[in-house]
Design a protein that fits this description.
Strand order of the largest sheet: 1-19-21-22-18-14-17
Structural class: alpha/beta
Helix content: 10-25%
Bound molecules: adenosine monophosphate, magnesium ion
Number of helices: 10
Shape: elongated
GO biological process, one term: Mo-molybdopterin cofactor biosynthetic process
GO molecular function: metal ion binding; molybdopterin molybdotransferase activity
InterPro entries: MoaB/Mog-like_dom_sf (IPR036425), MoaB/Mog_dom (IPR001453), MoeA-like (IPR038987), MoeA_C_domain_IV (IPR005111), MoeA_C_domain_IV_sf (IPR036688), MoeA_linker/N (IPR005110), MoeA_linker/N_sf (IPR036135)
Largest sheet: 7 strands, mixed
Radius of gyration: 33 Å
Cofactor: Mg(2+)
CATH superfamily of the largest domain: MoaB/Mog-like domain
EC number: 2.10.1.1
């Protein structure tokens, strides 16, 4: 076939930010669920409905340190006329054997211990003499001491109604009740509930494994001295940290030289441990833009990566595709540090969160008053300027300029200011939308 194919026409046009994002997300499904230990499932999305197998609490138990009694026995107790009960034993949390209580009897009981048969109320130790036969001052000391002698006495000086200070079986949840629904994001409290109902493992979408690889023959590891023309590789660190922050398990491969064969073999090696691949650099139209050269030329078997221009600044050149036998998503980000980070926030972070099956994949956006004017924003492009957002004042202040090499300004920003495609300048005090970087 002669003339431009559908494919080349497709690549020639300029894509909007939304179109590129939609394309990425339309090709990403949540990872297949796996069974994980509770703590490994933190932050993950549950894929099963969880039903309570046993009631919580599993048995009636005391909410106080005190005495398990028959409410009827202490109904008339007062400060001046305390009721004396015979203490027939001790029940600590975890006790299996419980003495039965008859009329005129009590059992010393600790918080969380099962209420013994016959008792229907707990009198807190503070409402008694603590079994000392002395005043309330000795009460607490007595209670924390060794088991009380059976046959001793306790004087109760306040009545307790039936059920007082007893946490009834099933008062939290009853068996068969739904505990958590599929789709729930597991935070600390959800993990606590799962543990309380006896679940050791749960089925969730796992955290994606993200492989981060930067390209550039000029790149040197931080910690090493720079030679002429060299710079430190900051992108692979920034992107790996960003991937972790998004919820992924991130592997930093580090910098690969601008050499097609090296890039190809490195990617091939990394494919086995990746749920998503992120590269930085080498996607423009320069002579050594090896990522684009290599990945645009993959065979049909190896996968397809499309390189496109976006109506966006920074971050105009972007590559996206699915590679390897398992068709792993790959996002090829531009090399300028601000471009790669902004691209990550806009496209890779949502992709990671979509792989996790999270309901909310995007950073929150909020309107804010821009404290300074923005002059000459490029027409036809959505610009993302770095900003310092003040939640209390509802304002945002640009940090640094538009240059995509301004790493320090990025580090001092907590937001991205969005200047829409058709806006070429923002007067001071005007309202803008701001992406909160958290
Ligand atoms: P490229 O997209 O490869 O042409 O790179 C664009 C610019 O970003 C160049 O100035 C590179 O030196 C710089 N750059 C590329 N990769 C990195 C990196 N990993 N860390 C810091 N700067 C980079
Ligand atoms: Mg490069």
């Amino acid at each position: 076939m002669n003339g431009p194919t559908d494919q080349t026409r497709h690549q020639d046009r300029v894509w909007s930010v939304a179109e590129h994002l939609d394309d990425v997300l339309s090709k990403i499904d949540p990872l297949d669920p796996i069974e994980l230990q509770l703590l490994d499932a933190q932050g993950c999305v549950l894929v099963e409905d969880i039903t309570v197998p046993v009631a919580l609490p599993p048995f009636d138990n005391s909410s106080m340190d005190g005495y398990a009694v028959r409410a009827a026995d202490v109904a008339d107790a007062t400060e001046s006329a305390p009721v004396a009960l015979t203490v027939i034993g001790d029940v600590a949390a975890g006790s299996g054997e419980l003495p039965g209580i008859g009329p005129g009897q009590a059992v010393r009981i600790m918080t969380g211990a099962p209420v013994p048969p016959g008792a229907d109320a707990v009198v807190p130790v503070e409402w008694t003499d603590g079994g000392t036969g002395q005043g309330p001052a000795a009460t607490m000391r007595a209670h924390s001491a060794a088991p009380q002698d059976a046959g001793g006495e306790v004087r109760v000086h306040r009545p307790a109604a039936a059920g007082a200070h007893i946490r009834a079986r099933g008062s939290d949840v009853t068996e068969g009740e739904p505990a958590l629904q599929a789709g729930t994001v597991l935070g600390p409290s959800q993990i606590g509930l799962l543990a309380a109902i006896g679940r050791g493992t749960v089925r969730v979408h796992p955290r994606p494994r993200v492989v981060v690889l930067s390209t550039g023959s000029e790149l040197v590891q931080p910690g090493e001295a720079l030679g002429p023309g060299q710079i430190h590789d900051s992108n692979s660190f920034q992107l790996t940290a960003a991937a972790r922050d998004a919820g992924a398990i991130a592997y930093r491969v580090g910098a690969v030289a601008d050499d097609a064969e090296t890039l190809r073999s490195t990617l091939e090696d990394q494919l086995i441990r990746a749920d998503i691949l992120v590269t930085s650099g080498g996607v423009s139209v320069g002579a050594y833009d090896v990522v684009k050269e290599t990945l645009a030329a993959l065979s049909a078997e190896e996968g397809t990566v499309e390189f496109r221009r976006l109506a966006m600044q920074p971050g105009k050149p972007q590559g996206f595709g699915l590679i390897g036998p398992d068709r792993i998503p790959l996002l090829a980000l531009p090399g300028n540090p601000v471009s790669s980070y902004v691209s990550f926030e806009l496209f890779v972070r949502p992709a990671i969160r979509a792989l996790m099956g999270l309901p909310e994949v995007h950073r929150p956006t909020t309107p804010a008053r821009c404290t300074e004017a923005v002059a000459s924003s490029p027409k036809g492009k959505r610009q993302f300027l770095r900003g310092s957002y003040d939640a209390e004042a509802g304002t945002v202040t640009p940090v640094g300029g538009a240059g995509s090499h301004l790493i320090k300004a990025m580090a001092h920003a907590n937001a991205l200011i969005i200047v829409p495609e058709d806006t070429t300048e923002v007067p001071a005090g005007a309202e803008v939308d701001v992406v909160l970087l958290g």
